[in-house]
Amino acid sequence: MCGRYTLRDSLKVSARFGIDLKASYNIAPSNSVLTITDQPQSMKWSYNPSWAKKPMNLINARSETLREKPSFKMAKRCLIVADGWYEWLKQDQKKQPYYLHMRGELFLFGGIYNEYNGENGCAIVTREASEELSQVHGRMPVMLRYDEGEGWLKGHDLFDSTLHKSIHFYAVNTMVNSPNNNHVDCIDPL
Question: Are 168 and 100 in contact (CB under 8 A)?
Answer without folding.
Answer: yes
